[in-house]
């Protein structure tokens, strides 16, 4: 989820810890191994299909997700919007959860690019079920619009990094297939979901027609996301990527980092989950804090305050002490753990949070 950027100034950092940036896992920097791979990357013109490193990344992503093909795109938003365009016709509806990324943070591109409108459904912790979805599928009557696509988000950002269980997904996949509807996954953090459930990402996504996932959210790649699906869909996706200005040239310098993100950084996400749990359990002990510990399943922590605290004011006070957090709407504070904030930094951040919240 995007948030208003904060200018990092007047920060008082702690010795040996520095600024503790918990605003998002998009702030991760490339690892030394990534920088070395980027410097040595073999490159070519990707619009011509001649960048060998991009080609390897796309082949590897397709292999990991057990799909026919995949395409490298600059951003997750572009990947989502290409997928929606692939599956829909102008004038149709897309069913999604009411706090989905495609609702709040993709600038109405569902309407602008695909000519569709969103049919949003509120769900506890952001987790949609087939019972909720089927009631929103419109009948095929010539004087009404029709449902063109179901879009899910796993993990669900605004839900607090919550994970949709596999059995819930299986019921949705079966129902959508019976209804003749495609299903897309905004899987920006789907490796977090797979880690939490302890199953391969291919098993967790097998029933989706298309899957988008990010390489730059917590996996340390500097740029990029992937869209995976059938060969026919990905061939068409190249047309839409180009129309959105995503025609890439010597992109192997980015894809080289993406390969390391995909094969190595996905293996350590459990550390981020443990650090998020540390923060959540510590915050839960503060009388002024309201937090749903059951929703803290991956690397996101969202909490609110009982006494009407000025959330922006708290964010400002934390920043001055070297801890960067995000105020989210509806009112609350979001913390996101990632590779670049280790256990020591999270412990220090928790101590500062406790002091500032209790200070009020």
From TrEMBL:
It comes from the Bacteria. The keyword Lyase applies. GO terms for molecular function: L-allo-threonine aldolase activity. The modification N6-(pyridoxal phosphate)lysine is found at residue 217. GO terms for biological process: glycine biosynthetic process; L-threonine catabolic process. Residues 21-303 form the Aromatic amino acid beta-eliminating lyase/threonine aldolase domain. The keyword Lyase applies. This is Low-specificity L-threonine aldolase. Its cofactor is pyridoxal 5'-phosphate. Belongs to the threonine aldolase family. InterPro entries: ArAA_b-elim_lyase/Thr_aldolase, Low_specificity_L-TA-like, PyrdxlP-dep_Trfase, PyrdxlP-dep_Trfase_major, PyrdxlP-dep_Trfase_small. It holds the Pfam family Beta_elim_lyase. Keywords: Lyase, Pyridoxal phosphate. One of its GO terms (cellular component) is cytosol.
